UniProtKB/TrEMBL annotation:
Entry binding sites for substrate: 73-75, 86, 90-92
Source organism of this protein record: Gordonia asplenii
Protein name per UniProt: Deoxyuridine 5'-triphosphate nucleotidohydrolase
Positions of the dUTPase-like domain: 24-153
Short name of any one Pfam family annotated for the protein: dUTPase
Matches recorded under PANTHER family: DEOXYURIDINE 5'-TRIPHOSPHATE NUCLEOTIDOHYDROLASE (PTHR11241)
InterPro entries linked to this entry: dUTPase, dUTPase-like, dUTPase-like_sf, dUTPase_trimeric
UniProt pathway annotation: Pyrimidine metabolism; dUMP biosynthesis; dUMP from dCTP (dUTP route): step 2/2
Keywords carried by this UniProt record: Hydrolase, Magnesium, Metal-binding, Nucleotide metabolism
Gene: dut
Reactions that this protein is recorded to catalyse: dUTP + H2O = dUMP + diphosphate + H(+)
Disordered: annotated span: 139-166
Amino acid sequence: MSSEISPPSTVPVLRVKRLDPDLPLPARAHPGDAGVDLFSTIDLELAPGRRQLVGTGIAVALPVGTVGLIHPRSGLAARAGLSIANTPGTVDAGYRGEIKVCLINLDPDESIAIARGDRIAQLLVQRVELPELVEADELDDTSRGAGGYGSSGGHARLDDAPASGV
Ligand SMILES: O=c1ccn([C@H]2C[C@H](O)[C@@H](COP(=O)(O)OP(=O)(O)OP(=O)(O)O)O2)c(=O)[nH]1
Ligand SMILES: [Mg+2]
């Protein structure tokens, strides 16, 4: 037996404007899902390697201090190679235009057909810090320091490869 996830007692509200009233209001597939699935407003066919900006038919009023993140759907990614060129897309709190998705076909061989009304991506809303940027001449010391880009090792096969990558 599945145990349903109860929403918290105070649920924040996200105001959503439907710009394409013939499409349903986006919704979570299951209670407690992080993502709200977004629809395509158009039919399209994406050839291998091609990308296209696709409307979702909605605009939102995200509370200041939150960000909307547009993520791919994992099923479509695994089955067909459908992804988002700028994943995750960033929707600023002040943005009131239509949310659009820059879909990309990562499959090397097969085209992907999408129909109007298909769920093509998902919107996550997350809290985000909005720090004031203050210029600093010196930064504090840390054990990592400036080490990055694999400085901690662990890629034995790649670490041994010649720098040219051949
Ligand atoms: O997947 C996305 C990403 C962005 N946007 C919208 C909302 C966002 O607030 C705006 C700008 O996005 P971003 O800052 O990532 O793009 P930019 O190239 O920096 O454009 P801008 O100069 O308008 O900030 O475009 C979408 O509709 N979908
Ligand atoms: Mg920007």
